[in-house]
């Protein structure tokens, strides 16, 4: 009989979820299963997970709490990497996790550092779930990280890096350590790699690629106008996922370039644990290393290969 921690992962086919799944499987210290909706079972991305020998548990998040409790039986750690438009669907899952005796719930955080309310709509909605967790006294860990390397570099005139969709192996490697660390129970943890300015990123990209990249610099006024336009558009139809996405993006940009929230010092101000201090032996991939691999064709393609 296996003595490994049994982990259930929701959202395993998304960019963050795939990295988490890879990190969990890499350690070989977990019995990993994946939670999928009935409508997703036959999708190629889910079949790829099955082909890796990962068992599935099938349930709709809109199911009753009782049904979800049954689905969660025997699970020790529940990790949610649900998509941004479905964050609030975790409410019933949180209650079911409490009833099922889940030892630790990892809600869908995996976002940049920002104030808990009033700056980013997506963060506001995540905090609703965090508060539900705390109301029920369900053991948890919130894990946030900086900007992904692969959304930090610009396109090249040659198009050589356009094939990259996601490339986030460090996320899963961090998660696999954090979820079994007693120091992180009921804590917020911040993971990070490089801290680079936009000019430093452009210098690395141009040096390694040998190509000249056109700057995409926008003024503060332009970013504020973009944010105002996105929010005004969403107010006309708050349920439109496309308009919500534009607000998410505009708020990320404003938080990053104007407020400059996403920094270790700000995470420390909010009381986060620093994963780099918790695991000093862990060496994240640097931006330079990653971009070198991307130029060599080793990044991830749309089909996940």
What is the CA-atom radius of gyration, in angstroms? 20 Å
Strand order of the largest sheet: 3-2-1-4-5
N/C terminus separation: 34 Å
**What's the number of structural domains?**
1
Corresponding CATH superfamily:
NAD(P)-binding Rossmann-like Domain
What does this structure look like?
With 305 residues, the protein is an alpha/beta fold. It has a single domain, classed as Rossmann fold. Helices cover 43% and strands 11% of the residues. It is built from twelve helices and eight strands. The protein has a five-stranded parallel β-sheet with strand order 3-2-1-4-5, with helices on both faces. The protein has a three-stranded parallel β-sheet with strand order 6-7-8. Helix 1 packs across helix 6, helix 4 packs parallel to helix 5 and helix 8 runs antiparallel to helix 9. The longest helix is centred in the C-terminal third of the chain and has 19 residues. It is globular, with a radius of gyration of 20 Å. It comes from Aspergillus pseudotamarii.
Could you give the topology of this structure?
Elements (H helix, E strand, L loop, with lengths): L4 E6 L4 H13 L2 E7 L7 H8 L4 E3 L6 H7 L5 E4 L9 H11 L3 E3 L14 H16 L4 E5 L23 H10 L8 E5 L6 H12 L10 H17 L4 H19 L4 H6 L3 E2 H4 L8 H9 L10
Helix pairs in contact: 1-6, 3-4, 4-5, 7-12, 8-9
């Amino acid at each position: 009989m296996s003595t490994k921690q049994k982990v259930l992962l929701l959202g395993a086919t998304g960019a963050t979820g795939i990295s988490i799944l890879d990190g969990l499987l890499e350690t070989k210290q977990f019995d990993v299963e994946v939670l999928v909706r009935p409508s997703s079972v036959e999708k190629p991305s889910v079949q790829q997970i099955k082909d890796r020998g990962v068992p599935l548990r099938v349930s709709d998040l809109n199911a009753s709490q009782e049904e979800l409790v049954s689905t969660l039986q025997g699970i020790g750690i529940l990790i949610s990497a649900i998509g941004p438009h479905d964050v609030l669907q975790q409410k019933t899952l949180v209650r079911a996790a409490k009833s099922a005796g889940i030892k630790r719930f990892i809600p869908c955080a995996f976002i940049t550092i920002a104030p808990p309310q009033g700056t980013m709509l997506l963060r506001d909605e995540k905090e609703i779930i965090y508060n539900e967790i705390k109301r029920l006294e369900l053991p948890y860990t919130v894990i946030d990280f900086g900007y992904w390397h692969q959304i930090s570099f610009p396109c090249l005139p040659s198009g050589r890096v356009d094939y990259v969709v996601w490339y986030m192996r460090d996320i899963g490697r961090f998660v696999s350590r954090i979820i079994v660390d007693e120091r992180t129970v009921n804590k917020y943890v911040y993971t990070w790699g490089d801290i680079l300015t936009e000019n430093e990123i452009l210098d690395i990209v141009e040096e390694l690629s040998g190509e000249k990249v056109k700057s995409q610099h926008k003024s503060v006024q332009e970013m504020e106008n973009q944010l105002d336009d996105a929010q005004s558009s969403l107010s006309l139809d708050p349920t439109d996922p496309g308009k919500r996405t534009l607000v998410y993006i505009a708020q990320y940009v404003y938080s990053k370039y104007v407020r400059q929230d996403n920094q270790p010092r700000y995470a420390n101000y909010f009381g986060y644990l620093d994963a780099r201090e918790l695991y000093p032996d862990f060496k994240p991939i640097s931006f330079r290393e990653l971009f070198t691999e991307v130029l060599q064709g080793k990044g991830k393609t749309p089909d996940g290969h």
